[in-house]
Design goal:
Number of domains: 1
Order of helices and strands: HHHHHH
Radius of gyration: 18 Å
Distance between the termini: 25 Å
Helix content: over 70%
Length: 201
């Protein structure tokens, strides 16, 4: 399997695990009467903005999708829709971050809006990633040449997602505190599983 495909899937798995776990964390806090950990929630949304939105999506839209459009014109509508999702993603995460800030500053009356926005955002994002994995990546694997994959492997292998480190690859020291902050807030019983385990040192 090409490195680029492995990276994309690993990053999808890491993001999906976090998005699915966020409401579980909020539910657990509600049941136990524990105050919301706003610092951890901010860290998680910062991660979404910093990696999937700024790096992962950019490389898909600027490298993967154009190559596939040229070789598989029947996917043009799908790719256009996925590109539109990417274009709207920055606005969506900003709105979610603002909603979290409103809850933190204004109290419980704003909690419901944040949780509703989170639910919509998560459902949309999970659907988006599923389309990429079921409609885009299989077609790319059938259509791309070795030279195409070499270019994509270099591009997707050049950044280090702190929640999806590859074997033998250390987490970027600048993001190590972010990784630890998120992992400490979301223990395995809430759904991290092996995807976001300790990883490489």
């Amino acid at each position: 399997m090409p490195l680029a495909v492995r990276v994309i899937r690993a990053e999808h798995d890491a993001l999906a695990a976090m998005l699915r776990t966020l409401p579980l964390l909020l539910d657990a806090q509600r049941r136990t009467g524990t105050p919301p950990d706003f610092g951890a929630l901010r860290a998680m949304l910062f991660y979404v903005d910093e990696f999937p939105e700024r790096l992962h999506h950019t490389k898909e839209s600027e490298l993967l999708f154009p190559k596939l459009r040229a070789l598989a014109p029947e996917l043009r509508e799908v790719l256009d829709e996925l590109d539109a999702d990417h274009a709207q993603g920055e606005r969506a995460i900003r709105e979610l971050q603002h909603s979290l800030l409103a809850w933190e500053q204004m109290g419980e009356p704003r909690r419901g809006k944040f949780e509703q926005q989170l639910q919509v955002y998560t459902a949309h994002y999970l659907h988006h990633m599923k389309r990429e994995e079921t409609e885009v990546l299989p077609r790319a694997r059938a259509a791309f040449s070795a030279a195409d994959w070499a270019e994509l492997d270099e591009a997707f292998g050049s950044h280090r997602d702190p929640l999806a480190p590859r074997a033998g690859q250390p987490v970027d020291e600048a993001y190590a505190p972010l990784r630890q902050r998120i992992l400490a807030a979301l223990p395995a019983p809430l759904g991290w599983g092996p995807v976001l385990g300790p990883g490489p040192a």
